[in-house]
Amino acid sequence: MKRTIDLGAGVLETIGAVADRERLEAYVVGGFVRDALLGTQGKDVDIVVLGDGIAFAGKVAEELGNRSLVTFPKFGTAMLPYNDGKIEFVGARQERYEPGSRKPSVETGTLKDDLLRRDFTVNAMAAALNSGSRGMLADPLGGRKDLKAKILRTPLDPVKTFDDDPLRILRAMRFAAQLEFRIDPAALRAATDMRDRLGIVSQERISEEFLKLLSAPQPSTGLFPMQETGLMNVVFPEIAALSGVEQRKEYHHKDVFLHTLKVVDNISRETGNVWLRMAALLHDIAKPRTKAFKEGTGWTFHGHEEIGARMVKPIFRRMKFPLEHVLYVEKIVRLHLRPMALVDEEVKDSAVRRLLFEAGEDIDDLMKLCRADITSKNPRLVRQVRQNYEMVARKMAEVEEKDRMRNWRPALNGDEIMEACGIGPGPLVGKLKQAVVDAILDGHIPNDHDAALQYLHSIKNKVLE
Ligand code: ATP
Ligand code: MG
């Protein structure tokens, strides 16, 4: 692997020129260097200077004519938004964590000190920016070697590195998934021993790492070691509880946790949408609670889709995931068994229409989850279920073609109903509206305004009684 990286002629050249002029050593460090060695380009840049990081950032901002520098004097760092990413500046430092205290005492340090305080050796390489040594790597901790071996190792004893900032335990799992690397066995042991320390880390930092993990090409690469080390139980106990829940094995994996990992990996090949991936992660979340044994059938999980849907919001609240995605995830979890129920030859258009109505514009995502949910090892069965879903998709396309359900709006709104019936706002309006919607979905009346109004008049007296 190379001993230099190509820094190109962009902003890093400018930063190098400012460093030359200010007679300071400056380096690009961390993820950018790692990604450059891997042949990809990250959009964020981290800069270390041997000197005052904030003052240096000010000079760079001035040189670039960029007025949006944000400084954090308390932390000795500064951030400059740049293109669609950001450049972060820090002066090389040494961090000392007193046992039992969360806040490190920070002192000026050498470049090596600064690399030693980082999370993994592959994130602890720097490339010089000054003209005399441009692109040359500083790699005192063997990051290149570990990058080549695809291994995540901590710069210090992992017990020390994880103790200083326990979030690094979860970052190990995140990078394992993102980079498709192994975690060094000593680090895994330390992760197991120290997992409970994650309790002192803020939920925001945890969630950010978890969502990055779930965005990786194959999330199980990180979710599996989370479970193995017991970290899952600390971070996401509902997922941890899926382990050891048995189910019938013709259709699924025997174990709900392993089945769920497979579904998440399957769907991740089809979508980068992290909320659809989240729905896949949560689709069977209520199985441990609904499990019952039925003579002659085996294990059953009646209502797990509805109870699971109701677990979504409390989970989102606790995890501090953005609540704007709750309804979507709830919906996908709630409906995940419905397409399967449409397989029957005899199934009526009305049932198809109803599902299209309830899923709305998320119907394609729902079908993606259904397909990802097939994890049987029996190829004959897999083929069968796939064909079934294709048939369902065809039925849906037919009904959609006829009735345009996807962006369907009920033919009457609440105001019209109140006026037609001479009533004010209240639960009755909803009841009448639902009756009209049902009549349309069931195909008793066509989906148009006049028919709906006529129908409303025909039922209103009975309902208002
Ligand atoms: P990404 O591709 O996700 O941006 P990254 O490696 O750049 O990956 P960041 O979280 O942006 O990760 O952090 C930038 C660098 O700062 C890391 O490469 C690492 O050197 C250091 N770093 C970040 N967070 C920590 C931490 N909690 N402990 C130690 N070092 C950290
Ligand atoms: Mg970064």
Descriptive account of the structure:
The protein is α+β, with helices and mostly antiparallel strands. Among the domains are: 11-147, Beta Polymerase, domain 2 (2-Layer Sandwich); 414-464, no CATH class. It contains 24 helices and 13 strands. It has a seven-stranded mixed beta sheet with strand order 3-4-5-2-1-8-9. A two-stranded antiparallel sheet has the order 6-7. Strands 10-11 form a two-stranded parallel ribbon. A hairpin with an 8-residue loop joins strand 6 (93-96) and strand 7. The radius of gyration is 28 Å and the shape is elongated. The termini are far apart. Magnesium ion is lined by residues 31, 42, 44.
**Strand-pairing-aware structural class:** alpha+beta
- Spans where pLDDT lies below 50 across 5 or more residues: none
CATH architecture of the domain at 11-147: 2-Layer Sandwich
Distance between the termini: 82 Å
Features:
single chain; 465 residues; alpha+beta; Beta Polymerase, domain 2; 7-stranded mixed β-sheet; two-stranded antiparallel sheet; 13 strands; binds adenosine-5'-triphosphate; binds magnesium ion
Q: Can you lay out the helices and strands and say which pair or pack?
A:
Layout: H1 11-22, E1 26-29, H2 31-38, E2 45-49, H3 53-64, E3 70-72, E4 77-82, E5 85-91, E6 93-96, E7 105-108, H4 111-116, E8 126-128, E9 137-138, H5 143-148, E10 151-152, H6 158-164, H7 167-179, E11 182-183, H8 185-194, H9 203-214, H10 220-228, H11 231-235, H12 237-240, H13 256-268, H14 274-282, H15 287-290, E12 292-294, E13 298-300, H16 304-319, H17 326-335, H18 338-341, H19 349-359, H20 363-372, H21 379-403, H22 414-421, H23 427-441, H24 449-464
Parallel strand pairs: 2-5, 10-11
Antiparallel strand pairs: 1-2, 1-8, 3-4, 4-5, 6-7, 8-9, 12-13
Helix pairs in contact: 1-3, 6-8, 7-9, 7-10, 13-14, 13-20, 14-17, 16-17, 19-21, 23-24
The protein binds adenosine-5'-triphosphate and magnesium ion (MG).
Residues 31, 42, 44 line the site of magnesium ion (MG).
